[in-house]
TrEMBL record, chain A:
This is Amino acid ABC transporter permease. Keywords: Cell membrane, Membrane, Transmembrane, Transmembrane helix, Transport. Residues 66-257 form the ABC transmembrane type-1 domain. It holds the Pfam family BPD_transp_1. It comes from Solihabitans fulvus. It is a multi-pass membrane protein. Its main location: membrane. Signal peptide: none annotated. GO terms for biological process: amino acid transport. One of its GO terms (cellular component) is ATP-binding cassette (ABC) transporter complex. Belongs to the binding-protein-dependent transport system permease family. GO terms for molecular function: transmembrane transporter activity. It comes from the Bacteria.
TrEMBL record, chain B:
This is Glutamate ABC transporter substrate-binding protein. InterPro entries: Bact_solute-bind_prot3, Solute-binding_3/MltF_N. Gene3D superfamilies: Periplasmic binding protein-like II. It comes from the Bacteria. GO terms for biological process: amino acid transport. Keywords: Signal, Transport. Belongs to the bacterial solute-binding protein 3 family. Residues 1-21 form the signal peptide. Residues 59-285 form the Solute-binding protein family 3/N-terminal domain. Pfam families: SBP_bac_3. GO terms for cellular component: extracellular region; outer membrane-bounded periplasmic space.
TrEMBL record, chain C:
This is Amino acid ABC transporter permease. The lineage of its organism: Bacteria, Bacillati, Actinomycetota, Actinomycetes, Pseudonocardiales. Its main location: membrane. GO terms for molecular function: transmembrane transporter activity. It comes from Solihabitans fulvus. PROSITE patterns: ABC_TM1. The keyword Thylakoid does not apply. One of its GO terms (biological process) is amino acid transport.
Amino acid sequence: MSSVLFDVPGPKARIRHRLLAVVGVVVVVGIVGFVAYRFYDTGQFDAKKWDWIQYTTIQQDLLTALMNTLQAFAAGAVLALLFGAVFAAGRLSEHAWLRGPSMVIVEFFRAVPLVIMLFFFYYGLPTVGIKMSPFAAVVLGLTLYNGSVLAEIFRAGILSLPRGQSEAAYALGMRKTQVMIQVLLPQALRAMLPTIISQLVVLLKDTALGFLITYEELLRYAGFLGGKFEFGRPLIPVSIVVAFMYIAMCLLLTALARYLEKRNRRSKKHVELDDTGKTEAVALAAD
Amino acid sequence: MRVRTLAVTLLVGGLALTACGKSGSPADSGSSSAPQAAVATDVKVDGSKTFDAMKARGKVVIGVKDDQPNLGYKDAATGKYSGFDIEIARLIAGQLGFGEDKITYKAVPSASRESAITNGDIDYYVGTYTISDPRKEKVSFAGPYFVAGQDLLVKKSNTDITGKDSLKGKKVCSVTGSTPIQRVKDQKLTDADKIVEFQTYSQCVEKLAQGAIDAVTTDDAILKGYAAQDPDNFKVVGATFSQEPYGIGLGHDDKALRTKMNDVLQKAYDDGTWQKIYDSTLGKSGSKASPPPLTRY
Amino acid sequence: MDVLVNNLPLFLSGFFTTIKLFLISAVGSLVLGTILAMLRVSPVPVFRAAATVYVTLLRNTPLTLVFFFFAFAFPLLKIVSPDSFSYFVAAITALILYTSAFICEVVRSGINTVPVGQAEASRALGLSFGQMLSNVVLPQALRSVVPPLVSTLIALLKNTTIAAGFSVAEAGAIRSTLSERGADTMVGLLWVALFFVVLVIPMTLLQRSLEKRWSVAR
């Protein structure tokens, strides 16, 4: 890709690039070095600040917190995919009474910030007598928010499938629901896989909002541990470790997407979508 | 293949992480000399839904704080809770028939207390929970079991903050949804844009240690705990300007359980258990206190 | 309605802070994101690598954690004085750093849609890499970039609410004050939700119409 924008550099350009590279390295090393020096200078590398990592109880609690994060993610992901599939079908329905409400619901939940939804479920609903555990509130929020984004992704995917697919299915005598469930949705799902996975990464990251409503996930535990006086308030070490855990999880998920996509391309069932559908879906999945 | 290698690496890494490790705690406050709470048998609380739910579950879930030394504090290294509020919670649980092994603690920050109770996440809440009328509309209170007063925590070197009237123009931190922050706002003790709000007091104390704020305000009992933890850095101003009766928060309509808890507290007041609990936790700093009269309703 | 009328100053100042947060961080992340995108397509490998690492790290970290870092951990490093680094500034820093990673990706994929001939032609005219990007490629990339860019900005608008957990009194923080005052939090939250719907729906419509108008068959 980058070769599109510039020719193979000539001797002058090579020297210039080398110079720039040196400048770049100096700048990057400078920034990293400065931050590292600030870390060192403010005692972030002191053994005391990292001591907590050796305690078995803390390791276990950290793992429990991680499991809670993953639990919310797993439940949220499955339900959001379901929600997305149902409402994508709803929005594409021939009946206006299905299409209208589906559209309103999807647009509404895409517009309302997840934080507000979580607050509403956890702090608002109990005042009218509906009880919600933090876990239920987190999962519900993740489902509605990401589900409605996924619904749009599915819809864009289905719309960009070649018409021949549904025409052929109807010609075989399949009914509308059959066409949707057996022909269109699976293909759209497969074609949109990269976008879907990147939305799932968003979902995984959004579980961190659970700490606002006392769900005992990774970030809440980080906050708890980071404030502990007996470990010298290891906020920075804890942030680093937790950030590493999140990044690793998200990258694993992305790697899974790549792997599936690669395997997908090899299979003959793959249908090439037209470009507009794809770009639209990519546009939708921006966090 | 690569996926499998990755999985194996993760597994081995995880095992390695959990296999070696220290136990025990770097904090000295770990061991508590508080009296072991007696566990009652055959407890009956007629007409209490919360109690029925506890019985059915075989466990009691108590909402507490986990970052307030000497009141409600979780030692991260041992996972054990300690402090005055914890002992009171334990005492009540024992008298309801739930021993130490039947208690699950759940850390709930101030702003989520009413929701945690009305949602049924917790059976009752013991954590510097001031009894107030607006709160009584959502939950109910047994007690009070202690009376604190709002005070200020400042850096040891600070000399210009001497009480609530010297707060003008200073950055003051407290916790979202707490009574102290409401008082600061209502009485306009400092400018609105100088008020800093976080979810927990320990976050405010972190900010004080960083020098990003001038004072942390809340009940003296909480502040004394932080000052005792880090006496070289912090001090409590010592000019209380309110009365904060601490109650045990529980469901709004659960009068039966509330009465039962008040009975338990009264008994602990009378037979000296309360005093023993106090002396072994909050009283360690030398200050004296006696149990406040209960207000039953 | 009562909740809104009785606490009007609270709602107004909350909404105003949200919009302020949004506008400042939108401009900031557009600038930073474009610079990052230029680095990511630069002929100098170090620039590419640095920008790639930045984007990968920030895109895979929860925004809440970024907030957490800048509100609590970053001041510990004593890089800037705590007086100038208010929670509002911390929130803006977190939002800009996080969103710019997404904007970088959007701009970069937009650059990819510009036909090769354009770049070749500008090189033939003797334009430098920077001139070519800013005068030829980026203006054309803009067309395919704007719709996803609007989505990213919508996400940014919604993400400002996370600041509520970090001592910034914006729309998301209205709830806690309402609850302290004993007002009906549920109705209050519905008003906040409505506020966002009113802001987001026009942006979505704009995005759709731009997408339709500017989608060119290439």
